[in-house]
Amino acid sequence: MISFYNFTADKRNMSLFRKDPFGYIIFIKKWLIRLFGFLTHRRYRGFNELVIEGSEIIKDLPDTNVLFISNHQTYFADVVAMFHVFNASLKGRVDSIKNVFYIWNPKLNIYYVSAKETMKSGILPRIMGYTGAIAVERTWREKGKDITEKKAVNPNDTQNIKRALQDGWVITFPQGTTKSFKPVRKGTAHIIKDYKPIVVPIVIDGFRRSFDKKGLWLKKKGILQTFTIKEPLQIDYENESIDEIVEKIEYAIEQHISFLKVIPTDIIESDKKLNKERQFPFDY
């Protein structure tokens, strides 16, 4: 009896169970990104409106060693918005996430740095973590509270970020907290200096008003959300100090203390009035 080895079927099976550098099965990862993409789209284009600027920058970036730095307003909604904007931009949309089918064939080498305790806080965060989380141990915070005695950095965490940069794009929130105008952690500057990625700043707003703290549940409708992508930072990796890079990050994500200023009452009232008047169509 003669048997023939089915190379085509074997290749297909190998592809089906192919894993990313962190051991996540690509097939499952792709379907989870699709699922979360379809489920969350109306949060940014329907219930609320996401106004995007600078998305043309995305399509010109290389496929690997890109670090996105951003201010932070919720645990998950910020990252989900980035997945939407990045994938829409790569499919040719300019400053728009109209027509959610851009998520059907997503970029699968996007990773995001997140606190290990956050990713273990429930079944939904654990599932979401499969889409590209790099879970790290925070050295200055534990169980939702700041600690006085700083813990040592886990070397595995920095190696995982290095591995993610070598494979694709990494999103990080340098302040490590959703509170505004908190100091930028030096760890991000060390990563930039050591691994020399292209650093792309992003500034977001409106997410804190739209979602709960975790960013899992919609808190309020009709809120204008903004998402601004800036030109990559010019960094002298060899000669700039860690403190200089930290300051450059603070300015880039508009979290330097100089941005903390008193807003005139008339502007505050005008913004409130505009938010009340805005009504967004359920347009895909």
From TrEMBL:
<keyword id="KW-1133">Transmembrane helix</keyword>
<keyword id="KW-0012">Acyltransferase</keyword>
<feature type="transmembrane region" description="Helical">
    <location>
        <begin position="21"/>
        <end position="39"/>
    </location>
</feature>
<comment type="pathway">
    <text>Lipid metabolism.</text>
</comment>
<keyword id="KW-0812">Transmembrane</keyword>
<keyword id="KW-0808">Transferase</keyword>
<dbReference type="Pfam" id="PF01553">
    <property type="entry name" value="Acyltransferase"/>
</dbReference>
<dbReference type="GO" id="GO:0006654">
    <property type="term" value="P:phosphatidic acid biosynthetic process"/>
</dbReference>
<keyword id="KW-0472">Membrane</keyword>
<feature type="domain" description="Phospholipid/glycerol acyltransferase">
    <location>
        <begin position="66"/>
        <end position="207"/>
    </location>
</feature>
<dbReference type="InterPro" id="IPR002123">
    <property type="entry name" value="Plipid/glycerol_acylTrfase"/>
</dbReference>
<dbReference type="GO" id="GO:0003841">
    <property type="term" value="F:1-acylglycerol-3-phosphate O-acyltransferase activity"/>
</dbReference>
<protein>
    <submittedName>
        <fullName>1-acyl-sn-glycerol-3-phosphate acyltransferase</fullName>
    </submittedName>
</protein>
